[in-house]
Design goal:
The complex is a heterodimer of chains A (about 600) and B (about 240). Chain A is an alpha+beta fold and about 600 residues long. Chain A has 24 helices and 17 strands. Chain B has 2 domains: about 150 residues, no CATH class; about 60 residues, Alpha-Beta Plaits (2-Layer Sandwich). Classes of the chains: A alpha+beta (about 600), B alpha+beta (about 240).
Amino acid sequence: MSAALPGFHGVLLDVDLSTGTISRRPVPAEHSLAFLGGRGLGVRLLWDLLPQPGVDPLGPDNPLMFLPGPLSGFPVPSASRTCVVTKSPATAPVQSPHPHASTVSYSNMGGFFGPEIRFAGYDGVLVRGASPEPVVLVVDDDDVRLEPAGDLWGMGTEGLDEALAERLGDRRFRSVYIGPAGEKLCRRACILHTAARAAGRGVGAVMGAKKLKAIAVRGSQMPTVSDHAAFLRRLERARRRFEGMVGTLYRGVLRRGGTAMYLELASKRGVMAVRNYREGTFEDIDAIGYKASRENIWVRNSACYCCRLSCKKSGVVKDGPYAHVVHDGPEYETGTMFGSNLMIKDLGGVLKAIARGDDLGLDIISTGNVIGFLMEAYEKGLVDRAFLDGLDLQWGAVEPVHAMIEKIAACEGVGAIASQGVAAVSKHIGEHTASFAIHVKGMELAAHNVQANPARALCYATSNRGACHLSGDSKHHQDFVAAMDSTGVCLFAVSAGRPMPGMSCEDIAMLLEAITGEPWDEDRFMAVGERTFALERMFNAREGFTPADDSLPERFFTEPLTLGKSEGAVLDRAEFQASLAEWYAERGYDAETGRPGAEKLTALGLDALT
Amino acid sequence: MPQAPPPDSPRDPGRRRVLQGLASVSGLVLAHGSLLATFSFSRAAQGRTVHAFAVVADLERCTGCRTCETACAAYNHPATIDGRTLRGLGNPRLSNMRVYGFIPEVDVPVTCALCSDAPCIEACPVPEDEHGRRALYRRPRLHTILNDTERCIGCRSCAAACAVDRGGVIEPDPATGRPTHICTLCDGEPRCALACPYDALSIMRGPVDSELHGKPPVEIAQRMMERWYSLSAPEVSP
């Protein structure tokens, strides 16, 4: 095998579960330079691995990839992320000539898994096929094996780290795994790591369909760098971005409140998901906000690999009916989706819901969204109690929500349909519920409401994995996010385009330069993002997605907020359409087909792919 | 139950602060008085040789980020590039510091405790030389523990002794059997403590007299789970 570029191993671990074949798959150098790793490399690989549309996401042909980036494995601040790329089991176009049509899925998780993949000597793990029996994939540097996992099948995620440490005899193994929801092929299942960090948006079902319970990785090697001295200098400079007055300020915010800090702020601004997105302000926010968690739940902060921010909080419910529940959170997304979106103001009840959701391996954003929809349908008399298996699913009712979580993960009773997502439930109940089924391309919106936030509305409508709050609020921001997701570094640690300290795009480019020996600057870095976004778009278009899919639920255009600072806010349809048209033009995408135009493809070096 | 709010006030580690022995005694070594008997330490004047004894961890501050592992490895396993000796890239596998992670979230940074009774040295079967040194011996300066590779017979007795009731830090080299991962204190300026973004590690002058210092990580984790999450002796494997 030819020598890899500095900074890259130039090889993926390629595991075919149908045959049990384990091999090393070279990554062409031009892919590494054009797409880096993570999300970018993922869609480039997916483009080749699924050359035809219509493949069943839960069938053996759908590849499942775990991709760190070129900065992973180095002690760069927050270079801790793993991107899970596959064809989504959770999205669908309005219409398509192809069966099983869905978008690309890129799900990003923090922790220690991505760096460990690099320590083991790979730029990623590619899993194909499907095993007849439950297995766990054990990667110990070059020693790679599949072991029977019948004893782990059925286990919740809470106990899996411990079980795997015991089985493998060393805590140095870092693992990802699915819970019962993934095993049951619940299309809203996650892949978890350290029992609380999650790659969400349905990818757990793909892993479950492959009967792959867990992957455990241990490595002993480091990737190389091209310019050792320059790398050390630039690493120190990157670290200093988190020191000093400005750096300390932002660092302090995340250490103090994590993303939960945004609960109070979002409610105040009227941009929070409340009452199934009917409102943007939660009147009981103080009961579930970060201050309440600091006082009543949290005991410590946790950080991902080499992260200086430690936004993750864990704790225990001290009293009340849910006393002694121990888990992470609430954070902004989980606290909103299992809190304000369901009108729940019992903080212990929220933490219990999060703990169960994680243990079962459910996507908490989607689960909270679907339950919110059912609560509204129940309130409006569009479904009766029998439909809900006897649950009195009223706004703010904690116990029925806990019961719904179990049903969705088990795909039982009302959970059989609810586990397929809010679009499926709405279709099942009737077309008249579509206006308050809050999804884009079949993917549930996250905890950010948009009546008072048009930029985020564009983000949701145009994101390539269906509704996504993180994919960027403008073309520039989208390209930045896609590039960052391809490096292995956390979005929270880079300030670009946002009024917060942290590393800059230039810092990342300079590190890439020292690592790869190639000239990198901000423009080349951002081009990786634009290229990635465009190829994702091409993948979706091949599946049958068109501009008609870049839409938003009717609620946001017709039902103004009635509470709080943003009372009266509602999206203007003409303005939204204008912003979409502007976005298409800026991107160089054809407004009719939604595909990148020939000129743009050439500029991005993607013309050879059509 | 002692309350343990997350550390919030951001503090710069400040190299000097670390070297000066750290002011916040109450925050040191598993944080609380109940686990701490008294210990003595003194501040080293700037510029003077620091007479050090061990790196200690404040578990209340540690977030499990493992920056310490990379800093230790980078210093103790330098790279030679074009004839220049530079810090290594920081492969955590080479580190003498190791952070053990547990669920529910407890992280236990473990490094050689440089135990005052040094069971590793006691276990060394190599006869003492004219200086009274076995193959494994206490170095007068900094009181670190060194291995004389000329005389070491690779019997792994030191590692076995460390594994019993101590941190189990010493790992025999798979090929030679010689002890590895003994803390060097980085010539008096432990890189783990200097690099910690959370001020969780410090160098202690004087004997560390804490109930948990040098104990196996599992035992420490169980204690912290009891303390933080009110979990009584949860089942954890080594």
